[in-house]
Amino acid sequence: MGKTALRQTLPYVAGLIISGILYHYAQQIDYSPRPGDLGPDFWPKVTIGMMALVCLIEIARRLMGVGQETHGIAETFEKEEEEEEVAAKHPWMLVGGIALVLVYAVVVTTLGFLLSTFIFLVSFMYLGRYRNHLAIWLTATGITLGAALLFMRFAYVSLPRGEPPFDAFTDFIRLIIGA
């Protein structure tokens, strides 16, 4: 175990410390528990725990020398510069992506979370010049159903339903996933 391995663990040690601090604050969430319901502290604690677990795994990997095929920060920045050069060749795609995000934020309460997310995903993939139509529509459908399942069935998050007649889409998805 050399200095390089120890240096590579530093970001993960910092992440582990931050996880501990965040978990301490998540313990401070005050609420009245109801039997059979998850409290508002459940998902933050799960997420923070997963963050800590990933940090521990990465610390162990670095110290044991697993996956030493890592690149230095210089190579990482060079790759990012190459990606920026590609993005510079298509400035209208960037502007279009920003516009799509802004439109999504504006219409999400009117169309509802699920319908606006579905339309956003399809539009974003077409904007990005992906042309496998079947993959676009299946991916958007799968992600929308997955988000509905996660937020409506497991996390019990209140999502914008949308205004009539768009709320019918949310009701239809809710019927499909059994929420």
UniProtKB/TrEMBL annotation:
Entry keyword annotation includes RNA-binding: no
Protein name listed in UniProt: Tripartite tricarboxylate transporter TctB family protein
Keywords: Membrane, Transmembrane, Transmembrane helix
Transmembrane in keyword set: yes
Pfam families: TctB
Chain segments annotated as transmembrane: 9-26, 98-128, 134-156
Domain DUF1468: 14-160
Domain of life: Bacteria
Upper taxonomic lineage: Bacteria, Pseudomonadati, Pseudomonadota, Alphaproteobacteria, Hyphomicrobiales
